[in-house]
Specification:
The complex is a heterodimer of chains A (about 180) and B (about 400).
Chain A: H1 2-15, E1 18-20, E2 30-32, H2 34-55, H3 57-60, H4 67-88, E3 95-98, E4 110-112, H5 120-132, E5 139-143, H6 149-153, E6 157-162, E7 166-171
Parallel strand pairs in A: 3-4, 3-5
Antiparallel strand pairs in A: 1-2, 5-7, 6-7
Helix pairs in contact in A: 1-2
Chain B: H1 3-27, E1 44-50, E2 53-57, E3 78-81, E4 84-88, E5 91-95, E6 102-106, E7 109-114, H2 121-138, H3 143-166, H4 171-176, H5 186-207, H6 211-224, H7 227-245, H8 252-268, H9 270-285, H10 291-299, H11 304-318, H12 322-334, H13 339-344, H14 354-372, H15 379-398
């Protein structure tokens, strides 16, 4: 419906005019289209509003929703993946991602655990279930909304990296 | 062209270019949110854990050996992709627990038939486009921007449609300032843009009495989402009511003749309206051989008597909440385009009150008065919105929750 409402609002604004009458000493009266001026004002507000978001996105968004934060984690994950492959001679490092952002799979073969604990109602039960299968994974990536998950696996995993938005957990060595 | 026109055009173009560049920057700043990448990913999503079996959902048809970790079965656990398949020569129908729930596979090509808010081969082509763009831009380490380029193109195209009807270049930046949230949710953006564009075009098709075009577009809308039926019914009722309420200028016979033409056209296009209903019923109609293996966890769908029972009970239980629902609709209207509300509904908290204030002020002091001021002229539209409000509230009563049986 928004298109229709916008269309009618826009049409009305565009039609709005202020009629000015000729005053003494002036040559003639005329019309000022206040609608067009208003539209310009609103467009400029939109431009400025978006500018605020671009200049300081961290002011408006949680850290885990900034792509720059994801990039940091991806660089760290690459390093960890290389290290595990070299140290343990594995051909494939298995990962579990419990995050709201899902870009990690682009670079990593990552099992997605988030829908399993998506709502608060099922979160604790889901976390317990995911903790049961944590042995299947070498690395677990957790976003800030699910930091509690570490409590369920702290006997088996240690915190390798922690940023404002993410935590990377790696399996503790058996020694 | 007058000087004033040239200056207006010049500033409008500058605004438009600034907005495009701002949206490009924003699109590359905010990470993918929740379901944004669901359909363009070869991802394995855990949807159930039962005894020693981990159930996965995958949008693409991944062979089961690919989901195992290096050593296959570890610690006695088995990973399984939840899907059931029925083969007919080189064709097969695949049933999955999440969207797309029904997929047609021809050799290696998969065509989604039924999803949640989207359906059919059209969106599938779009998702392929998203994937290609993401991978192309990924070569320059711009995966995210690539993923959203297609969304941005759709967004700007729809704003052009808007500008075409308003016959003003200024309408482009004016319109673009509002649905910018759609950039971040590509499935939703596609679904919402189709629904809003078709509603917009249908309004003008009815005004110009192009009934066949109206019904054709409405059928497309119903194919996109079941909500299309509510919008179409609202249009049909609003058209008939406004014709019957017409006074003065035209004779009653003329109005009745138009209503008859409209009803004839409705009957003519009724098979097209039935087709989406048939497709939406497919998961209940198709029984698949492997289904038993997974149905206990995920694929089981309620039978007709269970659906009816849930509908009736759901309907009765929601009646006391109708006034609250009405208030929430008014709030939704006032908060249209609100960044904070939009993100909050997806579990993201945005700090600062600027966004709320901005949206609220825009809506209360600008949208609403500009819209209401032409009450008489906009009468057919008000009838449509009123009918739609009532129908959409009734439709809410019939919504049933998705059975969540992953945690047995």
């Amino acid at each position: 419906m928004s298109f229709l409402i916008l269309y009618h609002s826009y049409k009305k604004l565009e039609e709005s005019k202020i009629k000015t009458t000729a005053k003494q000493g002036e040559i003639k009266g005329g019309e000022v289209k206040i609608g067009e001026i208003l539209i310009f004002c609103f467009c400029i507000i939109a431009v400025l509003g978006n500018m605020a978001m671009i200049i300081s996105p961290q002011k408006y968004l949680q850290p885990s929703f900034l792509y720059s934060e994801h990039k940091k984690v991806m660089v760290k994950l690459e390093e960890i993946e290389k290290r595990i492959k070299n140290q343990e001679g594995k051909s494939k490092v298995s990962m579990l991602c419990i995050t709201k952002g899902d870009i990690f799979y682009v670079k990593f073969d990552c099992d997605v655990g988030r829908p399993f604990i998506s709502s608060e109602k099922i979160a604790s039960k889901g976390m317990m279930k995911l903790a049961q299968i944590s042995d299947l994974y070498d690395v677990i990536v957790v976003s800030e909304d699910y930091f509690d998950f570490y409590e369920y696996v702290k006997d088996k995993f240690s915190v390798e990296v922690k940023t404002d938005g993410f935590m990377i957990l790696t399996k503790k060595s058996k020694n | 062209m007058s000087k004033v026109k040239i200056i207006t055009l010049f500033f409008a173009l500058i605004l438009y270019l600034v907005l495009i560049s701002e949206y490009l920057l924003i699109a590359n700043t905010i990470a993918p949110i929740l379901f944004e990448e669901q359909t363009v990913a070869k991802r394995k999503v855990i949807i159930g854990i039962k005894d020693k079996t981990v159930f996965f959902y995958s949008y693409k048809d991944i062979p089961e050996y690919e989901i195992q970790n290096g050593d296959g079965k570890e610690n006695g656990f088995q990973k399984v992709i939840a899907r059931a398949e029925k083969k007919f020569l080189f064709l097969s129908i695949i049933k999955k627990p999440l969207a797309p729930k029904i997929t047609l596979k021809i050799f290696d090509l998969e065509i989604p038939i039924l999803g949640w808010g989207f359906i059919g081969p059209g969106p599938h082509i779009i998702f392929k486009l998203y994937e290609k763009l993401r991978d192309f831009f990924g070569k320059f380490d711009l995966h995210l921007l690539g993923l959203r380029i297609a969304g941005l193109i759709f967004l700007f195209t729809s704003s052009l449609l808007f500008a075409k009807y308003t016959k003003s270049i200024l309408a482009l930046p004016f319109f673009l300032a509002f649905p910018v949230n759609l950039i971040y949710m590509h499935i939703e953006s596609f679904y919402y843009l189709i629904m809003t564009s078709v509603t917009f075009l249908n309004y003008f098709a009815l005004q110009k009495k192009k009934f066949h075009i109206f019904h054709f577009l409405s059928a497309i809308q119903c194919l996109v989402h079941m909500r299309g039926y509510v919008i179409t019914l609202a249009f049909i009722l609003a058209f008939i009511i406004s014709k019957l309420a017409e006074k003065g200028e035209r004779s009653r016979e003329e109005s009745i003749r138009e209503i008859k033409q409209f009803i004839f056209s409705t009957v003519l296009f009724s098979p097209l309206y039935i087709l989406p209903l048939f497709i939406f019923s497919l998961p209940h109609l198709i029984k698949i051989q492997d289904e038993q293996k997974y149905e206990q966890y995920i694929l089981a769908l309620p039978n007709l008597s269970e659906i009816m029972k849930t509908y009736i009970l759901g309907f009765i239980s929601k009646i006391p909440f109708l006034p609250m629902l009405l208030l929430s609709k008014v709030r939704d209207f006032l908060m249209t385009g609100n960044f904070q509300i939009f993100f909050a509904s997806y579990g993201v908290l945005i700090r600062g009150t600027f966004t709320t204030l901005y949206s609220a002020l825009m809506n209360i002091f600008f949208y609403l008065p500009a819209f209401l001021i032409n009450f008489k002229q906009n009468m057919p539209l008000f009838i449509f919105l009123g009918v739609y409000l009532i129908l959409s509230m009734l439709a809410v009563l019939f919504f049933i929750p998705v059975p969540n049986n992953f945690f047995h």
